[in-house]
Amino acid sequence: MHPIHDHDTLLLLAIAIAAKRRPAAPAAVIAAIDLMQSSPPGAERLAETVLRLARLGLVVVADGCVALSSAAEALVEALPAKAGHEERQFELRSGLAAYVPSECDAEAPDAATWHAAVLEHRAAGKTSAKNLLMPKPAPVAAQARPGQRQRKPLPKAKSRKR
């Protein structure tokens, strides 16, 4: 059995959110982590976690971008869809405990790449651009203005007989 770290589940869920259709850039993964919790872990910790997950066969790294392997996608798809992030991390932890790793040689983005992604995400947060991964606020229900009532319909005119 391999050790399961707290950042393993966080990073797998963040990659699942960020890499829906294509491998995700490190900045997109940081934005997904920001969606799930207030602050991302350090760059060194992220680099270690991605390398460990890549060696276990859960993460695929291509051109500096990361994506889930088919085994990791199966683990994420088995999670409850309507659960919160904390519950999904707990369920993913139990799935990782049952996972039989396939050791492989892998490369991962280094700590400098993750540090640059964290800085890029912070800089994007200070601009007027919106993070599309953040949840949208609930719309406020339109309040009726006082004094604005519908008018009564006019009575039907009686037909005159000639």
Count of the separate structural domains: 1
Q: Averaged pLDDT, please?
A: 78
The largest sheet, given as strand count, sense and whether it forms a barrel, is:
2 strands, antiparallel
List segments where confidence is low: pLDDT < 50 over at least 5 consecutive residues: none
Helical region count? 6
**What is the N-to-C order of secondary-structure elements (H for helix, E for strand)?**
HHHEEHHH
Strands, count: 2
Roughly how many Å apart are the termini?
99 Å
Order of strands side by side in the largest beta sheet?
A: 1-2
Assess the beta-strand content as a share of residues: under 5%
Structural class: mainly alpha
Note the overall shape: elongated
Based on the model shown, name its key terms.
two-stranded antiparallel sheet; mainly alpha; about 160 residues
